[in-house]
Design brief:
Elements lengths: L10 E6 L3 H12 L2 E7 L13 E3 L5 H8 L4 E4 L6 H9 L3 E2 L3 H7 L2 H10 L7 E4 L12 E5 L9 E4 L13 E4 L4 E11 L5 E3 L3 E6 L4 E7 L5 H18 L3 E10 L4 E7 L9 H4 L4 H9 L13 E7 L6 E6 L1 H6 L3 E5 L4 E2 L4 E8 L3 H14 L1 E4 L1
Bound molecules: adenosine-5'-diphosphate (ADP).
Amino acid sequence: MKTSAFYGKRFKLGVLGGGQLGRMLQQPAISLDIDVHFLDPAPDAPCSTLSTGFVVGDFNDYQTVMDFGKDKDMITIEIENVNVKALEDLEKQGVAVCPSPKHLHIIKDKGLQKQFYANNNIPSSNFTLIESKAALSPTNLPVVQKLRTGGYDGKGVQVLMNEHDLAQAFDGPCVLEALVDIEKELSVIVARNKSGEVAVYPTVELVFNPEANLVDFLLSPASITQEQENSAKELAMKVVEAMDFVGILAVEMFLDKTGNVLVNEVAPRTHNSGHQTIEANYTSQFEQHLRAILNLPLGDPSLRCPSAMINLLGEKGHAGPVVYEGMNEVLAMPKVYPHLYGKTSTKPFRKMGHVTVLGESIDEVKRNAKSLQSSIRVISE
Ligand code: ADP
């Protein structure tokens, strides 16, 4: 496609999913003059209040995706759990689809992903595939068991340490992974366009909420050695090139206690580990996604300054209409940028928004992120 094809032409981009990632994609789409239309099953999804177009429907249903896609110039995703067959058929009918359905097919299945890493000499933990719980035995332990499909945010992943844990094992097609002795969890976002141009974001460090298995907060840049930073970036580039992937790929990695960097898994879309790029990098991951899928020149991914991104998760014990307690205190802090996702009701650990904190140094952003975390609470009425 010639890049001039859509400037000023009411280019219609269809997005499968209408959650917070779509909402944040809308902002640079306005600046680049792209009409974005969202498909989501929830009538009150975060994108439902955006004016360009919102269709209520199931992105896993073949006919719904076909109907949604047929009059669009291009279809992209903000969630990978979609009807890939419909995307393949839309492509055959001449609708551009990016990322490619062939990549979604691999990435949706943690087993195929692991095989891809093994076949392409991409360092990742050792693994075996099993069809059901019956194939598990004490000799496999300790092990990380992951459902091949359908899991997200740590649901569908569990560590089986001893024979007693075997009773809780998932029963279905699973990946069994060697337990990595993790020093830090890292993420590198990488973008690639159809012309083969690649832009790699600096590595970020993720700090998980152990109870929710969700990212509590993130620090950018990661506090790792230059050598580890180079390995992480090289690895992300290797994955994107080996897949011949076009779009944004979030490469989640482990730094193990011996200093090795391993790929955990990838997401073929904008990612929670890149939200801080909206304020802290020259080009946000959302604008970069648009540039990559439309084969435009990629933007500069480098840092404007150090930052922290704090997820606003629904407080434990609260479910119902949402209240953001402490927002005025947060807004009164300098160099702090809240993003509320427009979800009307909260539940424990639901991702309701995030706040980015900028600073001169990692120590400063860490300090301010801690004080911010104790100022704000997402509760119900
Ligand atoms: P999801 O796709 O649901 O986010 P992940 O595969 O990223 O699941 O795993 C969730 C978390 O489980 C990781 O962030 C990490 O903390 C832990 N984990 C996953 N795989 C391993 C492993 N091989 N060794 C140790 N911990 C792991």
